[in-house]
Design goal:
The radius of gyration is 25 Å and the shape is elongated. It is an alpha+beta fold. The chain contains eleven helices and 21 strands. The chain has a seven-stranded antiparallel β-sheet, with no helix packed on it. A six-stranded antiparallel β-sheet has the order 1-2-3-4-6-5, covered by helices on one side. The protein has a four-stranded antiparallel β-sheet with strand order 11-12-13-21. Keywords: ATP-binding, Kinase, Nucleotide-binding, Serine/threonine-protein kinase, Transferase. GO terms for molecular function: protein serine/threonine kinase activity. Its EC number is 2.7.11.1.
Length: 454
Amino acid sequence: MSQPEAFGRYRVMRRLGSGSFATVWLAQDDLLNYPVAIKVLAENWAHQMDIQHRFLEEARILRQTDSTWLVAVHDVDVLPDGRPYMVMTYADQGSVADLIHRGQLPLDEALRLLTEIGQGITVLHNHGTIHRDIKPSNVLLQSSPVGQRVLVADLGFAKSIDEASGFTAAAGTPGYMSPEQSMPGGDLDVRSDVYSLGAVAYELITGRPPSRPPVRIAPGRIRPGLPPALDELILSALSVDRESRPADAKTFTDRVRAIRMSSDLPQDIPWWQRYRMPWPRAGALTAVCGLLALGLTTSLGVPGVSLSTVRYADQELRVDVPTAWAREFHTDQEARPAAAEAGAGPGLLVATGADEWHNTDVPSYGVYATVVPGAPDLRNVADTDPCPKPPEERMVDTPHWEGGLWEWPDCNGGAFTAAAVHPPGTPRTVYLEIRQPDYRPDLVDKIIAGVRLR
């Protein structure tokens, strides 16, 4: 197909790519001064009504789901020759396949991408849809004000879960589709997409797609040093027996997220080079000291955990946090109501996901700290029921700190600690919240020991 001048009001710039069923063009919406991608049904399928129906069904699904993690459809129209086209989000950074081809990804970056891909597939499953063609080239990347954004795309093979038992033809891409997809009448369900997520995970981690099923070589044999839990998760997702796979995309994604947020996740490169994000109120957060060397980790008394020091100038506060949690910094995080009533101002939050700090459905691990006037009891500054069960209580009595802790070893899929401590004889209290993927009282003690007030 030669390059057209325009599709309706959209001025065509260049071709982005083409496949068996469609061609995608980069175009400019001159009315809104915004680039868009336009997907047009291929000419040889113009009179195939079933293919046209599949094309329009993809647009309907994307429009109805309208998710941050999926390519958005802004408009649909028909050319004079009867071929439909859809106007979509333009992903200016190419695809995950392009990213993989440039070289091995840092482990944390690979897990971030995998988490966001899984969130997009979870949205589809919640909508009652199976994707059936998840692969790196069908996951696009777009620039955004907060960094790179993942967009799951190409739902040309997507089908309703309710119709899963009626599939009569194989669909998908060899190497990424589940064994049952290669058999007509395979009675598919969402676990077919879980297999594909496992295949994408394998390639993101190792740089190469998995072998034909059954897959027996764990990613850790290709990339040594991976957490055993990651090897186990990926191999279970790639199981020939779908009963052995994670139940759905959400289950798979939650486990990836927990592995990524673990405080002992291997670090490929320094965190300050990986995370480039807006720093709110940068003047208040005056310095983040360099990582403590790995050789110092053992001397810290917390094997396998590297700590970083964060200073909050407004409250003359210093906190040591696990490096793996130090992904977002906020110096204007509102205190819980009880602490605010006791006189605490906004505090420092260093966490894997600041926006999810109070969201029990999306785990976020890190440390929140603020200064409270006087030396109030923990009961006067902490919420009494952040977790379903009653807390375990213990006292803090060290040369530097005295006070108390409430600990919930099992709280919404992780562990939660609230602490109120003050230096002996000093009428200033530090209120802390610590969220962990697993209960580590030794780590809690080390974090408190690393807190300093000027």
